[in-house]
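Researcher: Sequence recovery benchmark, item below. Answer with residues only.
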């Protein structure tokens, strides 16, 4: 797409909010993992490790001084503490020992050492010390990047700016310094891509599918500012004074709307004719739990656990996982937290779990399918879930379930985890086991296994992708990505009917649940639990409170026979139209 007059581009709205400021083109290379050294090279490799450790400490102290000079004393203290960690013998000596004993290179040894120290801290019965686990991982990553000659996050985003990229991986989106991300503009991607989902969860304005943005910015130069409106998909290069005033006014309106949202969090989510709908939150880290609850979430419908497994060279320990899950459970004070088992493969590979190349990894050995040959990954994760359940109600669901055989695999792995904890004398509590409905066959064959599980959750992002054979990351296929397509609605109706017959609960945890218009359709189809990014909770609550469930049922029945997603969407959008 060429830049229009005035430097204005039209992308696809992905996360609401307004941003204006400098821009940075972010590109990050992954850390090399699994490196080895020859026996006669261990001394030289240890010297490299200690030099990188010293460099990291020096860089962190310099960063602390810059941040402090800018008036941010609290943040400066954090970076000074990180500098001390970079010299910590518990971290560096352990890594050096791995070089000598395991013949690992510096990158692999420091990442493994960081994971080990972090797990020890996370297991401590001290809130302040256990919270330092994430800091240790950050410091280890910094040292590893120096060893590998790669930039650290501050090099990618050294000061507040709008992040511009061709696309962003989930791991990079999750690990960039969030306080410096004013907004996100992507040349590619889609509103259902993982970077967009994370942007919504973090409350970062985002526009995706902005064709021509990188070329246009290259022409405009590094000194121009960039403005974006994540609710409309507008992007403006080098805004003039009038445009700046316009975007400032939009930002003020958005802030006012957020204040109104907070004022409504105590209102019940009940239709005008008395049908109650439970609103839950999708979270990607334990730190997102408290803000979600503040916006009225009555539990977690999707806790993505990949953050624990990404950006490291060794898997997280059982203790580290337990601490993370327990933190979220405790934040919700008795409301259920639904933990999704590790979903890797496809667009989320993990370096220390090498998988053979596949022609189509989205349809390959992914998520629960890995448990056939690598059950230990899921046994460890389930053990952590059972242990976290001591603090409050926990539900666990498996992704990429296709049929009754996959459901049986989940139950088998869970049984092994439970039996192991009992044999080890480790305290645990029961959890509810369920599945994600992302593959059409899982719904078509639901009657064969729904009676063996406690709940099911519709992952409408992948369900739409697999039903309509559409790549959710390809902006050229935008019209196929609307989950309001009648074919998808029919599958949801079938799932609701099967869940009702089996007496199990059914929720939606895909992005469809956070779309006010689509949420009305889901209520009409019989879904009574909707999970979404926390920022979407207020608008969905308002939409449901304004509607009549009987009318929604009638519209849903009619929508099943519509010709397109646009036609089905129009039926429910009319209910929310002003006046």
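Model:
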């Amino acid at each position: 797409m060429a830049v229009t007059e005035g430097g204005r581009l039209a992308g696809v709205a992905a996360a609401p909010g307004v941003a204006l400021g400098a821009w940075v083109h972010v590109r990050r290379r992954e850390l090399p993992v699994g490196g080895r050294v020859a026996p006669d090279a261990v001394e030289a490799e240890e010297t490299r490790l200690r030099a990188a450790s010293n460099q990291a400490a020096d860089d962190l102290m310099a960063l602390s001084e810059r941040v402090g000079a800018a008036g941010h004393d609290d943040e400066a203290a954090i970076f000074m503490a990180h500098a001390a960690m970079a010299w910590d013998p518990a971290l560096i000596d352990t890594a050096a020992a791995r070089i000598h004993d395991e013949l690992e290179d510096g990158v692999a040894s420091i990442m493994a050492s960081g994971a080990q120290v972090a797990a020890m801290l996370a297991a401590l019965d001290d809130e302040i010390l256990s919270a330092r686990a994430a800091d240790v991982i950050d410091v280890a990553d910094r040292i590893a990047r120096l060893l590998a000659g790669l930039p650290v996050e501050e090099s990618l985003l050294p000061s507040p700016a709008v992040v511009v990229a061709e696309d962003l991986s989930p791991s990079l989106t999750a690990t960039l310094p969030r306080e410096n991300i004013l907004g996100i503009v992507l040349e590619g991607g889609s509103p259902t891509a993982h970077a967009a989902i994370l942007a919504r969860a973090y409350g970062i304005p985002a526009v995706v599918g902005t064709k021509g943005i990188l070329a246009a910015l290259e022409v405009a130069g590094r000194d121009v500012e960039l403005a974006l409106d994540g609710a409309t998909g507008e992007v403006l290069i080098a805004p003039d004074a009038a445009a700046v005033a316009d975007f400032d006014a939009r930002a003020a309106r958005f802030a006012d709307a957020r204040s109104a949202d907070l004022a409504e969090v105590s209102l019940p989510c009940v239709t005008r004719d008395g049908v109650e709908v439970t609103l839950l939150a999708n979270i990607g880290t334990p730190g997102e739990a408290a803000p979600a609850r503040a916006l009225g979430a009555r539990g977690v419908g999707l806790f993505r656990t990949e953050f624990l497994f990404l950006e490291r060279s060794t898997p997280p320990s059982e203790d580290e996982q337990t601490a993370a899950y327990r933190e979220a459970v405790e934040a919700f004070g008795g409301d259920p937290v639904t933990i999704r088992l590790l979903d890797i493969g496809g667009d989320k590979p993990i370096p220390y779990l090498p998988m053979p190349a596949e022609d189509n990894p989205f349809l390959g050995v992914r998520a629960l399918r890995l448990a056939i040959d690598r059950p230990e990954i899921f046994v460890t994760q389930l053990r952590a879930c059972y242990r976290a359940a001591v603090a409050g109600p926990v539900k666990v669901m498996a992704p990429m379930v296709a049929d009754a055989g996959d459901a049986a695999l989940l139950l088998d792995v869970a049984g092994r985890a439970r039996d192991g904890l009992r044999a080890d004398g480790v305290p645990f509590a029961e959890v509810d086991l369920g599945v994600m409905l992302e593959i059409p066959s899982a719904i078509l064959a639901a009657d064969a296994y729904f009676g063996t599980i406690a709940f099911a959750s519709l992952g409408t992002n992948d369900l739409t992708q697999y039903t309509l054979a559409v790549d959710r990351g390809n902006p050229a296929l935008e019209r196929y990505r609307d989950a309001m397509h009648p074919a998808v609605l029919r599958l949801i109706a079938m799932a609701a009917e099967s869940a009702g017959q089996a007496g199990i609960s059914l929720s939606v945890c895909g992005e469809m649940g956070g779309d006010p218009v689509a949420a009305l359709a889901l209520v009409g189809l019989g879904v009574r639990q909707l999970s979404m990014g926390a920022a979407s909770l207020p608008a969905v609550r308002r939409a449901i409170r304004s509607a009549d469930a009987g009318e929604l049922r009638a519209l849903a029945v009619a929508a099943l026979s519509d010709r397109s997603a646009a036609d089905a969407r129009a039926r429910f959008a009319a209910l929310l139209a002003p006046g």
